[in-house]
Design brief:
This protein is of the alpha/beta class. It contains nine helices and 16 strands.
Amino acid sequence: MSSEKDIESIEEEIRKTPYHKATQAHIGRLKAKLARLREAGEKGEGGGHAAGAGYSVRKSGDATVLLVGFPSVGKSTLINRLTKAESKTAEYDFTTLDVIPGMLEHNGAKIQMLDIPGMIAGASKGKGRGRQLLSVVRNADLILLVVDDMGQLEQIRLELHDAGFRLDQKRPDVSIVKKDTGGLGINLAVKNPKLGLDAIRSVLQEFKVHNADVLIREDVSVDQLIDAIASNRVYVPSIVVLNKTDRMEGIGFRTKGKDAAGAIPISALKGHNIGKLKDAIWGKLELLRIYLKRIGKDPDMQEPFILPKGTTVTGVAEKVLKKHAKGLKYARIWGPSARFGGQHVGGRHLLRDKDIVELHA
């Protein structure tokens, strides 16, 4: 049997098997095998081939944002509106045949925007060069799910999920330390867990994990345990962008649903709400603007360093002083993270957006 037929057969068996305590280990093994087959198929058909198919784009700037959506939802128009990219636009499907990069400059940051060919149903299984297309998504720091009808959203999310993407989720708190001998040592550090030990063992063994110390710190499902073991899972935030709002009145576009309230309605063609979208992108990326101040001088408020949330004073020193960062003695700071202006802090001090930092090394 081909791997695709294997996958279809396993999916059918999972659908037909009722889920309860007695079938938990069996379903866990089936789901683990399904995940393993999909991962193998991705490596065989989407991995090395993707770079030669015009889909390999080098990351640049302070962050990378990807536009994902079905054909003709206006992604090309949107990237042209956000950046100085020159992506062809037309009123027919598949105008974009290659990845079109552009650079959005906002709040002092340079944010790489990538417009990829329109997704189609079955992309996660390789249809429409889907695996090559989705290989680009793995490099993204944020995904814009661009739709012109909220009814498209479920299919897009399903394709991304089946390809290993976990939108707006945290990685399961599961630690697996492999060893040469000794079998499986499983520590379930939760009360009344969803999964029994037999189900956990069946999933691990399907992934060829026979000797390991496993620590599970949260109440995970079968799917979450598989996600923790699989090597191709990508955890990335997303924003839903509802485009073509200038055309929606009286045309019957579906704008209702549980996701409609969180979507950002825009018109890429008319420029409506583009500023709001830029601010939403900035907020989701959780970037910091850090302004440097030389000793005895005024701070440079024109060109901030753009750094990720969670950056410490040591992180700034490594960015600025590079190989001399180990000579850092302390820093003085002004701004949101300072208790008072000019506060003396050490390298572990956590910085916040718009802090001013004076390094003493």
